[in-house]
Amino acid sequence: DGAGGPLSLWGLWWGRHDNVLTRLSQKITSYVMNLAADLKFERALMASGHERPEGDRCPICFHLIELTVNGHSKIYACCMKRLCNGCILAARQRGILGSCPFCRTKVPADDASELEMIQKRVHKKDAEAMKVL
After folding, report:
1. In the chain, at which residue ranges do the beta strands (DSSP E only) sit?
2. pTM for the full model?
3. Residue of 102 and 48 predicted with greater confidence
4. Residue 28 pairs with which residues in a beta bridge?
5. Distance from C-alpha of 64 to C-alpha of 125, rounded to nearest angstrom
6. Which residue from 106, 72, 112 is spatially nearest to 88, judged by alpha carbons?
7. What pLDDT does 2 receive?
8. Which of 87, 39, 43 is nearest to 62 (CA)?
9. What is the pLDDT of residues 15-35, one digit of tens each?
């Protein structure tokens, strides 16, 4: 039948490809929706209490102090600053021995002197010193 030949072939060709295009479109839509959901989940996860306080940064190099903070840093009683082990080591290598790498105050020789330094910081209303006592 010559009258409907080309249209029938076009319809047959388009029907096959339309089906492929529809499936492809559905897969792309699904991929984009999953990607959007993953991004939304990631943002929610990052904002859900996993932030670290600013006090966990070394005041010299400003890097985050590794967890466990107490194992990778030290608080100096003179200025109540928590310094990372890397900055403490760098100060020692530069010859800064027996004094604080941050404020250069002599490190107390005994516990009584250290307690006296902390009490001075408490009298100055230093929150870190109050937390230590």
Report:
1. 73-76, 81-84
2. 0.57
3. 102
4. none
5. 25
6. 72
7. 47
8. 87
9. 666 777 788 888 888 888 888
